[in-house]
Amino acid sequence: MATAGGGQAGPAAQMTELRRTVLSLLVSAGRPQTAYQLLDRLRAVWPGATPMTVYRSLEFLREQGLIHKLERSNTFFACVEAGHHANVVQLLVCQNCGLVAELEDDSVSQALFNAAALKGFRPLSRHIEIDGLCAGCANPRQ
Smallest Cα–Cα separation from 22: which of 48, 47, 54? Predict the structure, then answer.
């Protein structure tokens, strides 16, 4: 059975109520969250939740293409268009408010892969983090 992220769902790869709750917490947060921020919120509905509970759920959700991880800040956020990524995703991260905008520009991905290949480099990451300011923070008066 194919999953939302295009992977195969086996007996252990099912969207459990716990995983659904973790995803819902990420969606409702509206901003990237650390595993421990999620754990604090999760314990309100799953009192026995542990860090491993959250990490396992996050790993499953990443494998299914439902969330992204910002490596630099070690935070997670819900994917806007789950499971659609064929190439590298460009993540625009506001350094002021934490907003993350998700892009998938094939020309940017192709240019990056071509430039990397010229250097004999093979990218393993499926996303690029670009730090900056969102429109609201860059132009606060508008």
Answer: 54
- Residue 25 burial (10 A CB sphere; 0-12, 13-18, 19+): buried
Dihedrals φ, ψ of 110, to 5°?
-65, -40
Distances from the Cα of 68 to the Cα of 51, 90, 91, angstroms:
18, 11, 9
Q: Please report whether residue 6 resides in a domain.
A: no
pTM: 0.76
Residue 122's contacts (CB-CB under 8 Å, 6 or more residues apart) are 116
Query: What number of H helices and E strands is found in the chain?
Result: 5, 5
For residue range 117-142, list pLDDT tens digits in order.
999 998 887 788 999 999 999 988 86
Q: Please indicate, yes or no, whether residues 128 and 94 belong to a single structural domain of this protein.
A: yes
- DSSP state, 93? E
Residues 121 and 98 in one domain: yes
73 assigned to some structural domain: yes
